[in-house]
């Protein structure tokens, strides 16, 4: 039976987890997620990220360009399905999580405010990426319907 767990990074998200599943090495999981993501290319952003990006005057077009760079390997791979991409001419950093067939913009910070995320934050983002990788299309669509996530890059080749 699947158990439910919640993760709080920026906001609380709850997912179903198969407690009996064997752990997967981050690199192995990343290869599978990246390969699938390149095919589907759905790009999403959380409601929190959307608000932060709006305050920083970062438009969806720039996010679409940045995620293409991630797919090409031109961003920092922090491991475990967590990527760091530079935005607004290197003034901001975004944390993007790779899911099974999609990419989620999760966190945004100004370079002047902090150099990087802390190790405990990276561990939490990795756990969140692993949870995102287990979401079904129905669950992703529900998050979009509930406005917890917003899909961007519609009709663009990512």
Topology (elements, then pairings):
Blueprint: E1 3-8, E2 12-17, H1 26-40, E3 42-46, H2 47-55, H3 60-71, E4 76-79, E5 82-87, E6 92-99, E7 102-110, H4 119-133, H5 137-145, E8 149-152
Parallel strand pairs: 3-7
Antiparallel strand pairs: 1-2, 3-8, 4-5, 5-6, 6-7
Strand order of the largest sheet: 4-5-6-7-3-8
Question: Quick one: biggest sheet?
Answer: 6 strands, mixed
The overall pLDDT, averaged over residues, is 80
Query: Helical stretch count?
Result: 5
List keywords for this structure.
158 residues; disordered N terminus; alpha+beta; two-stranded antiparallel ribbon
Descriptive notes:
This protein has 158 residues and is α+β, with helices and mostly antiparallel strands. Helix content is 38%, strand content 30%. It has helices at residues 26-40, 47-55, 60-71, 119-133, 137-145, and strands spanning 3-8, 12-17, 42-46, 76-79, 82-87, 92-99, 102-110, 149-152. The strands form two sheets. A six-stranded mixed sheet has the order 4-5-6-7-3-8, with helices on both faces. Strands 1-2 form a two-stranded antiparallel ribbon. 32% of the residues are buried.
